[in-house]
Amino acid sequence: MAPVLVLDFGAQYNQLIARRIREAEVFCEVIPYDTPAAEIEAKAPRALIFSGGPASVLTPSAPLPDPAIFDLKLPMLGICYGMQVMAHMLGGRVSGDDRGEYGKCSLTRVTDAPLLAGFESPITVWMSHGDRVEVAPPGFSVLARTATTPVAAMGDPTTNRWGVQFHPEVSHTPRGREVLANFLFRLANLSAGWKARDIIAEAVNAVRAAVPRGRALVALSGGVDSAVAAKLAEMALGDRLQAVLVDNGLLRADEVEGIRAAFPALDLLVVDARAEFLAALCGVVDPEHKRKVIGHEFIAAFDRVREGLGLASVLIQGTVYPDVIESGSRSAGIIKSHHNVGGLPPGMQMRVVEPLRWLFKDEVRRIGAELGLPAAVVWRQPFPGPGLAVRIVGEVTAERLAMVRAADAIVRQEVSRVDPDHRIWQAFAVLLALNSVGVMGDRRTYAHPLVVRVVHSEDGMTADWARLPESTLERISQRVVTEVAGINRVVYDITSKPPATIEWE
To answer: Taking the model in full, what pTM does it have?
Structure first.
């Protein structure tokens, strides 16, 4: 079942297109842009979407789909680079534009068309492009333009092919979801109806097919991703599943006890690997190196468990899409390798199964609620797999871990007092690799500054800093410098994502 296929041309946030389609309760799948037309046809899709991307169709190495894709006679929508691909391959003209368009733009409708049904002119949209379509392909009509882009939207109702130069998937296009809905329901004649229970059934079947016999491990960290993955794996495998929590010494305060309490009925094995992880991280400063070291140590710990219990060489983990996309692909650059994606050792013997790999965090939460997981688990704030190691800038030591762990607990306690409805996406502390001068008790100090990071987000792909009450920031600062030895200064991070990431490393 694949009503909509999204061809991925490499833009960093292409998965947002799939997310918007799923929000409309239509199933979709993201596939590489160069998937052969025969493979696409075999999936029996009812519509195709060409995503955006960083390339230019004017270069010899431009990523282009199989030309036979246009023989499939499917409804098609090109977005940004995807529209330029469509124009280029179907006989239109694309040119370079030194000026480009970036940010909010005003779009003027040229003619009525179902794709923009319900819109008055002008329309506010979000643009991010250098090249532009100068002339639409034969059979296409120009639907809209901007002050600098003569073809900002185009369409051919005869072949049911459409294109928009703007990005309807991003929140910066205020009515972008309506554009996508027009394509899905007016032009492709799809019906809504794909819900959380469908995702659950698909994931359970996928795990069952991946582990037809023998027992498997599931990595449990206490976060919502691993909890949902564990529940799905339990539904698929029953007593053939062994849940494992690796206590790597990089967890938050009281983490192990909290995980035990949250999963009282689960067969949970806690592995004490604190000494091994701390020894492996000794002298490691580079954040990418940290993630790879941690990934290697995790696999080594799971291998020891697997061999000791005589289990199958299968590891189930709660990888979600932001982990995948930020770790890079053949067409998208690395933002930061995640320990459970880019940090896994090459040639590892265990086969990894990831039932949540193409889901966003908010989708995982909805599934967790549907599965009946406790609210404390479903709404738990994201915590990176490498743990406090990537909340310490510089070398990870036992002393620095103790400082950031104590400070982090204070930050979360104080933020929770003003966030009873779980509106905050993440609140945590970061310890910097430098010292600053202070004065405490009439004596000079030379100790660590602490960064407090609190953000709002929907899916972790973009974020904005939280405007906390001044009284909350004051309490955090007073408590940290009073209760945590070695910290004499607290600062608040007011940077959005992008340009920053949520985590510091």
So the answer is: 0.70
